[in-house]
């Protein structure tokens, strides 16, 4: 542990809590994924989001069309250029999401104790008596007494626009429900959630496939956020689909666990996926409230032990309309970090919230404070024990690099990597200092043309806690001599100095290959 670090497990001087934190170049080691939409699509606001610490932009296709998202993405590109902040792109699918079909977007008022019918017959206009939906199997899926929830797209916990229904009768293809609370539905999109009920809709719908193979390919998406992942097979099928789409064979799949079905198959899903999104919005309705934290803590622990990034959603709902989070939300963000999240995903807060930039900034500050008291020592020991012996050579090198960096109080770790594997393994051991992952391009061919790898690998580290990528010049391709390694190291050190993350006399731990051997070396900088 670096000296002066608070350890929550030890008695601390209360006044030390108030000591201001030293400003650092990176807002936090924990990453922030922002969902871009109406309130976060101008170059100006996106630039603000990037500067505040957003490193992944999520485009949610549950909502709006590809042209709209393309316009936002073009603005994101401009903002990336002008701020020189890196940002990865995540496409979020619609998947097995049930939606109310309300073409004319009329306001619908539902009265407590009244009745409303859910029908697959989309010929009906949506009214207070009947709501057409996009799924024709609901009547076969639910039974009397089941709970159905209807909420505004990216609903927050504090809205009066969401309604609880109880199924009272199934009539042919229609489902008659009792309204449990009065609510007014207005807005363009309402989603339905039937609690703990299997919905026989595909995880990757035809519309999703269409969007991925057009918008996704065109924009070389770094991450696919696979909504409603319920089985490992869902991930395998998505992988198979991506493998035939050129560059998208490199897209990482983040399985979104949003219901009890996904929770039940968590272990198999984790094995297949590149990362996990704990979709607490939907899962928070599917699970009894007293069980949510148990899933969160055990799922994050499993992701950490597997060395796969975990993303947590729905943290500061109330910031959609307010400049400050509630105390519960502020504490929740910190606990997400202490529990092991790699990234926090903001939904409504950035998409339609009034304070997207301030929200990112606030969440980043809370994360950064929590990182300082994260018990790295305990975590490290737990991880080493979990992995067991014999460790793979690379994992042993990676964990040693983290140990050495802490022991010598290094200001950063520099990791050379091509596939990204070494950097991810270092991040797995949760170093307390930033890791500059220097991605060395590799010359590759797809039989049609030659190109350099590296861009995907670099951007994909933008969702991993503690990793900060730098793409090396392709004139220094992988597998080259120790002389080029030295040149690249010098470039990396200069880059670190220019960013202000390293200064004269600092110690730096470097993980690289020299000849055939992976080595960890400690260097002390001169003036
Ligand atoms: N171009 C490179 N030059 C020097 N060392 C490298 C290079 N690429 C990877 N390494 C080192 O090689 C080892 C294997 O790293 P890994 O990320 O698994 O590389 P690969 O891209 O070959 O899978 C690590 O010690 C890493 O730091
Ligand atoms: C982010 C979530 O899902 P969606 O994007 O489908 O609203 C969630 O359920 O927390
Ligand atoms: K979605
Ligand atoms: Mg969801």
Automatic annotation (TrEMBL):
EC number annotated for this UniProt entry: 2.7.1.40
Gene Ontology MF: a single term: kinase activity
Alphabetical list of InterPro entries matching this protein: Pyr_Knase, Pyrv/PenolPyrv_kinase-like_dom, Pyrv_kinase-like_dom_sf, Pyrv_Knase-like_insert_dom_sf, Pyrv_Knase_brl, Pyrv_Knase_C, Pyrv_Knase_C_sf, Pyrv_Knase_insert_dom_sf
Enzymatic class: transferase
Catalytically driven reaction(s): pyruvate + ATP = phosphoenolpyruvate + ADP + H(+)
Listed pathway(s): Carbohydrate degradation; glycolysis; pyruvate from D-glyceraldehyde 3-phosphate: step 5/5
Pfam families per the UniProt record, alphabetical: PK, PK_C
Cofactor requirement: K(+)
Pyruvate kinase C-terminal domain boundaries: 395-514
Keywords: ATP-binding, Glycolysis, Kinase, Magnesium, Metal-binding, Nucleotide-binding, Pyruvate, Transferase
Domain Pyruvate kinase barrel: 29-360
Family of the protein in this entry: Belongs to the pyruvate kinase family.
Protein name in UniProt: Pyruvate kinase
Highest classification ranks of the organism: Eukaryota, Viridiplantae, Streptophyta, Embryophyta, Tracheophyta
């Amino acid at each position: 542990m670096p000296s002066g670090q608070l350890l929550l497990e030890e008695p601390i001087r209360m006044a030390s809590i108030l000591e201001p934190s030293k400003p650092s170049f990176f807002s936090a080691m924990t990453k922030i994924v922002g969902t871009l939409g109406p309130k976060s699509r101008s170059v100006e606001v996106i630039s603000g989001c990037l500067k505040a610490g957003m490193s992944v932009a999520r485009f949610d296709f549950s909502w709006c069309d590809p042209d709209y998202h393309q316009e936002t993405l073009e603005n994101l590109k401009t903002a990336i250029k002008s701020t020189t902040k890196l940002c990865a792109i995540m496409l979020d699918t619609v998947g097995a999401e049930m939606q109310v079909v309300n073409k004319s977007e009329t306001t619908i008022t539902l009265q407590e104790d009244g009745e409303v019918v859910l029908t697959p017959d989309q010929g009906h206009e949506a009214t207070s008596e009947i709501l057409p939906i996009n799924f024709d199997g609901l009547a076969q899926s639910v039974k009397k007494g089941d709970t159905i929830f209807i909420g505004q797209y990216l609903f927050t916990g504090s809205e009066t626009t969401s309604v609880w229904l109880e199924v009272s009768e199934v009539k042919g293809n229609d489902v008659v429900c009792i309204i449990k609370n009065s609510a007014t539905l207005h807005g363009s999109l309402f989603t339905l959630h039937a609690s703990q009920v299997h919905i026989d809709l595909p995880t990757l719908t035809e519309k999703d496939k269409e969007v991925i193979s057009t918008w996704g390919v065109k924009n070389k998406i770094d991450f696919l956020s696979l909504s409603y992942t319920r089985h490992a097979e869902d991930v395998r099928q998505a992988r198979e689909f991506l493998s035939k789409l050129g560059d998208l064979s490199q897209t990482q799949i983040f399985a979104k666990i949003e219901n009890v079905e996904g929770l039940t198959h968590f272990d198999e899903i984790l094995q297949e996926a590149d990362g996990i999104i704990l979709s607490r919005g939907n899962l928070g309705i599917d699970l009894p409230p007293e069980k949510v934290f148990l899933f969160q803590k055990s799922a994050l622990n499993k992701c950490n032990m597997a060395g796969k990034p975990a993303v947590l959603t729905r943290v500061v709902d109330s910031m959609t309309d307010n400049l400050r989070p509630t105390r519960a939300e502020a504490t929740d963000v910190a606990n997400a970090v202490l529990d092991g999240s790699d990234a926090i995903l903001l939904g409504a807060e950035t998409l339609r919230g009034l304070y997207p930039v301030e929200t990112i900034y606030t969440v980043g500050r809370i994360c950064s404070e929590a990182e300082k008291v994260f018990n790295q020592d305990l975590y490290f020991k737990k991880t080493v024990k979990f992995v067991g012996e014999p460790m793979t050579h690379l994992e042993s090198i990676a964990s040693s690099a983290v140990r050495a960096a802490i022991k010598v109080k290094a200001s950063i770790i520099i990791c050379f990597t091509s596939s990204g594997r070494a950097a991810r393994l270092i991040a797995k051991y949760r170093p307390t200092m930033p890791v500059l992952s220097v991605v060395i391009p590799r010359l590759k061919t797809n039989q049609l043309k030659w190109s350099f790898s590296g861009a995907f690998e670099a951007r994909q580290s933008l969702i991993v806690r503690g990793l900060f990528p730098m793409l090396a010049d392709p004139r220094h391709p992988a597998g080259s001599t120790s002389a080029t390694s030295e040149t690249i190291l010098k470039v990396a050190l200069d880059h670190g100095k220019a960013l202000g993350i390293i200064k004269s006399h600092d110690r730096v731990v470097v993980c690289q290959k020299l000849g055939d051997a992976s080595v960890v070396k400690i260097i002390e900088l001169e003036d």
